[in-house]
Amino acid sequence: MKLLITGSKGQLGNELLTILKNGRAEIGAIHEAYKGAEVIGVDVDELDITDTAAVYAMVQKERPDVILNCAAMTNVDGCETMLETAMKVNAIGPRNLAAAATAVGAKLIHVSTDYVFAGNGTSPYCEWEPCAPNTVYGKSKRLGEEYVLAQCPRSFVVRTAWLYGYVGHNFVKTMRKLGAERERLTVVCDQRGNPTSANDLAYHMLKLVLTDEYGVYHCTNEGECSWYDFACRIMEKSGLSCEVAPCTTAEYPSKTPRPAYSSLQNLSLACTVGNEMRPWEEALDMYLENLGGMDQ
Ligand SMILES: NC(=O)c1ccc[n+]([C@@H]2O[C@H](COP(=O)([O-])OP(=O)(O)OC[C@H]3O[C@@H](n4cnc5c(N)ncnc54)[C@H](OP(=O)(O)O)[C@@H]3O)[C@@H](O)[C@H]2O)c1
Questions:
Q1: What 3-state class would DSSP assign to 137?
Q2: Domain range annotation of the chain
């Protein structure tokens, strides 16, 4: 089996590479089918997914069985001002990969976001819920989903949220840094979602691509919380005494509107390969333990 991972230096791409190398994720071993698999990891310096000709050339040359697209423009505020880049990376790039995958008969698994929803829900969004993104990031990611589904019949679109992995930047690392520097922090308590381990997500992606269960999936850790709850647990489990105070979005406005409620339900996973996503607290605790080990 040959796998092509795009955006391989990002949080999720790195997790996929690590799991494939070790033959196991934090929640368990991956399938035997991956033993001896050829894994090609490329990031923007080796393959810019917005370069249509380059994408075709690499896919034609390598003829992978599966393409795992982890490349994206994830800077939500940046997308608001850099419309062209957001469109290219989050919509045209996935379109290029979808068309190239179809040309060689490869499967494509593409990763998307809770931002495709309006974010004003009151109960977790299932995969069948209508999309209504209200940020450039969300709109560009939604168009990317549509292109992938329309142009690659053997595709999976997997939406996730509040992601953290071992490389790169994320909320957990930011909180730990600030928590070590400051005595008090304020964190918004009126935005709810699902903190998600990139390792758990990568494990489920590798389960999905061995099947022909094409379509749209939600894949987040189980349970939901506010950013405030998330920050409190990070401080507690990191042994940091920094006080976390709750505040509202109105008190702490961001440049780009953030969803007030964008919790996802892993319904398609439960109906197909099985939903093994851990409760978010359990996944976070293990991540913090491992991060602690890396600091030493
Ligand atoms: N992070 C989250 O909280 C979150 C939440 C929901 C959904 N998601 C989705 O989950 C997926 C993985 O996110 P992540 O957190 O792993 O993202 P990430 O850490 O930002 O990684 C994305 C990678 O893609 C690379 N990239 C950017 N433009 C590219 C291009 N034109 N061609 C090839 N590679 C390019 C980036 O390189 P540079 O760093 O050099 O730009 C980076 O290495 C994305 O689809 C994202 O939309 C993420």
A1: helix
A2: 2-169+195-221+264-277
| Catalytic member of 137, 147, 214, 217 | 137
DSSP code, position 112: E
pLDDT digits (tens, 9 = 90+) for 18-65: 999 999 999 999 999 999 999 999 999 999 999 999 999 999 999 999
Closest CA to 204 of 124, 270, 289: 270
Domain 2-169+195-221+264-277 in this protein, CATH class = alpha beta
> Is the minimum distance from the CB of 138 to ligand 1 under 6 angstroms?
no
Residue 131 CB less than 6 A away from ligand 1: no
- State the distance from the centre of ligand 1 to the C-alpha of 74, rounded, in angstroms: 5
Please state, in angstroms and rounded to a whole number, the distance separating the CA atoms of residues 261 and 208. 27
Q: Does the Cβ of 162 fall within 6 Å of ligand 1?
A: yes
197 by Cβ neighbours in 10 Å (0-12 / 13-18 / 19+) ranks as buried
Give yes or no: 203 in active site.
no
